[in-house]
Design brief:
single chain; about 220 residues; alpha+beta; Nuclear Transport Factor 2, Chain: A; 2 domains; 3-stranded antiparallel β-sheet; two-stranded antiparallel sheet; 9 strands; about 45% helix
């Protein structure tokens, strides 16, 4: 789907995303965007599903910062009242369904467990059990053996009698999490109790993912 941002026409949202990524990546961490890029970002913000709360009292300037958990670069809005908040440019380009936002939040809530498992496994495991590739922090991925993530999440929802659309989500910049810490704790404990994790190479993970997608088309 085409989109026009700050007078620039993009024939697809993917092309627009690539342009925005180039803007982000040309700046160092903490560096302010120039006048032209700032004007572009202000216009982009009108497409954000939560644009009013993101803009607040008004945008003063933008910087590029680093995300706390996954260490990804992202844009930070600095408001005229001195407050600041980050935002996802992808959220401006792609409207998320309730279900996809809920799944993202559920994954975010167990990120500490995933990071801890990865660190602990790397301390004693050096090779991928599928490809025999030597593993380190940058080429490895935490994977769910049966029961898979989706099955664990469905089991928890059934046990607690929850529906995704009834769980209030909290957006913190590019992060989405559960608003209720009680619900978050319930999910974290359930996942910890029922998950069967392993550490594999990113290459093996992508191959497994592609294989599952191919099978689903049969």
């Amino acid at each position: 789907m085409a989109i026009t941002i700050d007078g620039m026409f993009f024939p697809s949202r993917e092309i627009a995303a690539a342009h925005i990524k180039k803007i982000r990546d040309k700046y160092s961490i903490g560096e302010s965007l120039n006048k032209n890029d700032s004007r572009f970002m202000v216009d982009l913000l009108r497409f954000h599903p939560d644009s009013k709360s993101k803009i607040g009292e008004g945008v003063d300037f933008f910087t590029v910062e680093i995300e706390r958990v996954y260490k990804n670069k992202h844009f930070m809005i600095h408001r005229v009242d001195g407050s600041r908040i980050d935002f996802s440019y992808l959220a401006c380009l792609h409207k998320k369904t309730v279900n996809s936002a809920f799944i993202k939040a559920a994954r975010r809530e167990i990120s500490d467990e995933i990071i801890s498992f990865k660190k602990g496994t790397l301390a004693r495991q050096y090779f991928c059990p599928i490809s025999a590739i030597e593993l380190h922090s940058k080429n490895s991925h935490v994977d769910h053996l049966p029961p898979f993530f989706a099955d664990i999440l469905k089991g928890w929802l059934k046990k607690e009698d929850y529906k995704p659309e009834t769980i209030v989500l909290l957006c913190i910049g590019t992060d989405t999490c559960f608003s209720s810490r009680e619900i978050a704790s319930s999910w974290q404990f359930y996942h910890l109790e029922h998950s069967n994790l392993r550490l594999i190479s990113i290459k093996s993970h992508k191959e497994n993912h592609a294989r599952k997608n191919n099978l689903s088309r049969v």
